[in-house]
């Protein structure tokens, strides 16, 4: 009888000592989405060929890619991120200014950032025009910026 009692006590202790598995299913900090469009036909997406993208002072995010859209992380420690985009030896610099808004998501996910009051400046080596679509970056469903080239 003592053996069964010991087994039951050990089993109950093991069950009670288990921690709840926390899996983050909620959103995380969104990336900035830039889509590239044809300067002659503004509704047609156009790939940028042999594109290199890097943030100031950081490693490349995209190297020798041909894409019509890119996802770029924004700096969580500053209110400005500067990206360089090179194609055909021409480099344009895109400066994104924003206000960071820290949001508590859950115990498993922790905090995330949304970006508000977004403003964009660019040089125009190969970029024709920049159109800011959303001044709030809180999702990754659609592009936030359209660039024509």
Helical content class: 10-25%
| Widest sheet, order of strands | 3-2-5-6-7
* Approximate shape: elongated
Q: Please provide the count of β strands.
A: 9
Spans where pLDDT lies below 50 across 5 or more residues: none
Multimerization status: single chain
For the biggest sheet, the summary is: 5 strands, antiparallel
Task: Count structural domains.
Answer: 1
- Give Rg in angstroms: 23 Å
Distance between the termini: 82 Å
Number of helices: 1
Structural class: mainly beta
What proportion of the residues form beta strands (DSSP E)? over 45%
Taking all residues together, what is the mean pLDDT?
89
- Report the order of strands and helices: HEEEEEEEEE
Features:
elongated; five-stranded antiparallel β-sheet; single chain; 149 residues
Description:
The radius of gyration is 23 Å and the shape is elongated. The protein is mainly beta and 149 residues long. It contains one helix and nine strands. The chain has one domain (2-148). The protein starts with a helix and ends with a strand. The model has no long low-confidence stretch (mean pLDDT 89). The longest helix has 16 residues, at 2-17. The protein has one helix spanning 2-17; strands at residues 32-37, 48-55, 60-67, 69-72, 80-87, 90-106, 110-122, 129-132, 145-148. Strand 2 and strand 3 form a beta hairpin. The strands form two sheets. It has a five-stranded antiparallel β-sheet with strand order 3-2-5-6-7, with no helix packed on it. InterPro entries: DUF6452 (IPR045607).
């Amino acid at each position: 009888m003592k053996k069964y009692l010991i087994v039951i006590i050990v089993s109950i202790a093991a069950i009670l000592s288990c921690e709840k598995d926390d899996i983050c299913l909620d959103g995380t900090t969104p990336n900035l989405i830039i889509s590239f469009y044809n300067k002659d036909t503004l509704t047609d997406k156009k790939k940028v060929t042999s594109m290199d993208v890097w943030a100031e002072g950081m490693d490349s995010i995209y190297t020798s890619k041909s894409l019509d859209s890119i996802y770029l992380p924004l700096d969580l420690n500053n209110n400005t991120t500067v990206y360089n985009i090179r194609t055909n030896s021409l480099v344009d610099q895109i400066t994104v200014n924003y206000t960071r808004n820290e949001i508590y998501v859950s115990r498993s996910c922790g905090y995330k950032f949304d970006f508000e009051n977004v403003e964009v400046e660019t040089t125009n080596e190969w970029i024709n025009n920049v159109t800011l679509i959303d001044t709030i970056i809180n999702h990754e469903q659609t592009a936030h910026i359209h660039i024509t080239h």
